[in-house]
Amino acid sequence: MPFSFDAGFPTTRLRRLRQHPLVRRFSQTVTLSPDKWILPLFVKDGAESVPIASMPGHRQLTLTDFRTEVKELKDAGVGGIMIFGIPNAKDAVGSGAMNEEGIVPRAVKTAKDAVGDDLLVVTDICFCEYTDHGHCGILKERGGRWEVDNDETLEIVAFQALVHARAGADMVAPSGMIDGMIGAIRKALDENDYTDLPIMSYAAKYASAFYGPFRDAAESAPKFGDRRGYQMDPAADPAQALREVALDLREGADMIMVKPALPYLDILSQVKQTFPGVPLAAYHVSGEFSMIKAAAAAGWIDEKRIVLESLNSIARAGAPIILTYFAKEAAAWL
Ligand code: PBG
């Protein structure tokens, strides 16, 4: 029975666990592990890297600067990267994503060449960066409205995953919230002898305004409409997130992600409790990053403490694996 061993005041004084810094440290069970953090990186062809105005400190990287960056990350003790590619050309069906010589396959090879197995190289599987309309798949008109054609998109999603696998990615991470995407990718990978390549599913991904700065970074804002037809409704019953996770696990997902992080810690915690033993990740997204940066630049908050407290909260809620734009800085702070 919980707490039955507490004698009560004055025999019990919980302050005793807090007064001395050493005792405080020994009482901690939540730990931050930069070797389980993943830094999202944006890569683009070009002569020079381009700073991302809404994400201070981050750039759309040329392959040359990307190579330098992954080496620095390895030295900083960060565990992995998530690659987002900005293609040279976009079209209605995102064909750039299927190009074996595209920016992402080249970045994967560059990372593996630079740091080998010292860094987990994950690729984002989605089409919003590759389509001229900015939606996450092939569009179809139905009843006067445009929507992402789920089943048609499944085929190209599987193909894109295969392209990344062939380039040498350690893991693929589909983020499009297309029903059946995990199963389609698993099947394609298995049929092509990639039975051991794991999939991290953006399983519970909400239609969030916190993705704003990312869409500047990845040049992936939808040209019309929004993503509410496929990403989760923030006001949906939380159990819907559990259904998403259960479906993805049945289709073969190896790791599960909840996204965004801080506004959805309740979801994270429920997933953790409902699916013990499944490696759980949280994506501390661009808007969460930029809000902290903006407030820190204004001198309103202590950036370092706010960031570490945020990462602690995410770990405490159940995700030791954290995708965060603070990965490099925070690893240095620890
Ligand atoms: C692509 C994708 C998005 C993010 C990750 N993958 C944008 C979106 O869904 O609109 C957002 C990440 C962030 O905000 O940091 N579908």
Summarize the structure.
This protein has a single domain (31-333), classed as Alpha-Beta Barrel (TIM Barrel). The protein contains eleven helices and twelve strands.
Explain this structure.
The longest helix has 18 residues, at about 150-165. The chain has a single domain (about 30-334), classed as Aldolase class I (TIM Barrel). The protein has helices spanning about 20-25, 65-75, 105-115, 150-165, 180-190, 210-215, 240-250, 265-275, 285-295, 305-315, 325-334, and strands spanning about 35-45, 50, 60, 80-85, 120-125, 140, 145-150, 170-175, 200-205, 255-260, 280-285, 320-325. With about 325 residues, it is α/β, with parallel strands linked by helices. It is globular. A hairpin with a 7-residue loop joins strand 2 and strand 3. The structure holds ligand PBG. Ligand PBG binds near residues 128 and 176. The site of ligand PBG has 12 residues, from helix 6.
